[in-house]
Give the backbone structure.
Amino acid sequence: MNHFKCLTNRLASIVVLLLSPLAAQAETLDSGDTAWIMTSTALVLFMTLPGLALFYGGLVRSKNVLSVLMQCFVIACVVTIVWVVYGYSLSFAEGSSWVGGLSNAFLGEVTRESMAGTLPETVFVMFQLTFAIITTALVVGGFAERMKFSSMLLFSVIWVSLVYFPVCHWVWGGGWLGEKGLLDFAGGTVVHITAGVAAIVAAMVMGKRNGFPETPMMPHNMTMTVTGAGMLWVGWFGFNGGSAVAANGDAGMAILVTHVSAACGAFTWAVMEWIRYGKASALGTVTGMVAGLGTITPASGFVGPMGALVIGISAGIICFIATGFIKRKLKIDDSLDVFPVHGVGGMLGTFMAGIFAASSLGGAGYAEGMNMGSQVGVQLIGIVATVLWTAAATFVILKVVDAILGLRVSDEEETEGLDTTQHDERGYII
């Protein structure tokens, strides 16, 4: 009898030991959070493919539409490979204040059982990957219609490695800006400032497209652009709402303020055009929408509806002015206005997050020991550091790629169009 009892106790102990990992997982894994972030992951990838690809594709001339679609598509491929090999590790693994280590290279520590908060780590890895993809794809708009395909590939791989991964670590991976208390909920610095600054540096290094600014270079297919813009608007709910990394009130508020800012940015830009030119354009309206979305991104988890109204209207006004200033006054050929929309919007939103996060203005409130003055100071440090690092690194990368492959297609190839010269295909059969 005693022998049987002892055996029973041992079996019970073994069962408990076997089930304990599952029990621990059941206590930490939240199926609601997991389902929301999986949905958000799909939404953010949808923003690039097909959203951004169609948005950019419609904005270029018909002879270059396929090249832009191809660039967005292939960037999704190469950034994914780099992310798996070392990108996730450099962004989120333990390391220095400046960059993560290589302890998680090839996702060696990511298993079915590993967790990131209440999520399977696999879901977090994939969600963050979609951010790296769209950030790198955004840069395409700065050099559209004139960079070699091979050079674009090499540039993208080096750029995401030396700019995106370190800045991501600074802000979200335990780096120095995160430690300082920078408020960047979904990527004002990490995504929009890096992409915008890289785009304008590329535009200046490569020079103007042939005929700019004397020759009009109008979008060839506004239907495609508006379709892509609608996909971006919807996908942005996953971009900002998913950055709560949970299905909770922060995610809900992020979605609300994202929509409000997008609507305000679009309508304000249209009004600005109406006042200046006598008509509101579809191109201006969707551009204002993107400006509103990019500007609210860093603040989306920290501000309330009132803050979103102010941020969206500010984006519509300031980004509109910046676009005209860069194109007409400075005559910089940032082909698809990446810097004035994303770069300026990212800076504006990062700055305003430090103001409208105040609980007295409907925000979530500051961290203990922080007030508006100290928070704005941290926000400015984040903006300046991101701009300087991105500009310097991008310039060096472009020069290296130029020395290896050459950056720009020939004048003849540019005149003929990148669809045929780079891919031996046509976007349209006429």
About this structure: Residues 89 and 313 are 38 Å apart (CA to CA). Residues 32-423 form a domain with the Ammonium transporter fold fold (CATH 1.10.3430.10). The two ends are 90 Å apart (CA to CA).
